[in-house]
Amino acid sequence: MPRDLVVPPESFEEILTWLHPDREVAGAMYVQLRHDLAKLFMWRGCSDPEGLTDEVFDRVRKKVHDVKPGYQGDPRLYFRAVANNVVKEDFKKIKTYASLENVDLSKQQTTTTKSEDENIHECLQLCLQALSNDKRELILSYYAKEKQAKIDHRRELAQRLGISVETLRVRVYRIGESLGQCIERCLKQKVE
Known about the structure:
The chain has 9 helices and no strands. It is an all-alpha fold and 192 residues long.
C-alpha cells in the first residue's frame, strides 16, 4: 500500500495534543507508542513491524481531526485498535501467498530459469556497483539484519547518520527505486 510520506504539521501537532496537553510528555508518549506498536507487530509475526507502525500513524493522522473531539479515554487505545486492524489485514495478505517451504526447486528448474536467475543476479551486482559507495553501503546495511536486530540496527544506523528512522526509510526507498529501474534496464538489454 503506497504511503503518503508528507505528514502535514497540523496533523502531527493534533496527534501530540491528543496524546497529552504537555508537549514534552506528548513527545515521550509518541516515541513510546511507536516502540510499543513495532513490538506488537513483531510479536504477532507481521511482515514489516516498522512499516506497519507507520501505517497505523498514517491512518490515525487522517482521522484524528474527526475522532479526537468525541473520543473518551486513553488515545493510545485507539492507536492499538487501529494496529489490530492492520495486523488482521497483514495476516490476510500473507494467506494469499503460497508457501514454498517444502518445494524442491532443483528438480523443477529449467536451464532457462537458471539463466534468468543468473541474469538477475548479474544485473543486481552491476547496478549495486554503479551506486556511489555511500548509497551502496547504506542499502546493504539497511537490509542486513532480521526481526528485532533489524529494528535496532536501523535505529542505530539513523543515529549514526544524524537523521530520523523515517528519513532513513525514505532514503533507502529512493535508492531502491533507482536500483530497481537499473535492474529492469539491464535485464531488457540482456534480452535484446
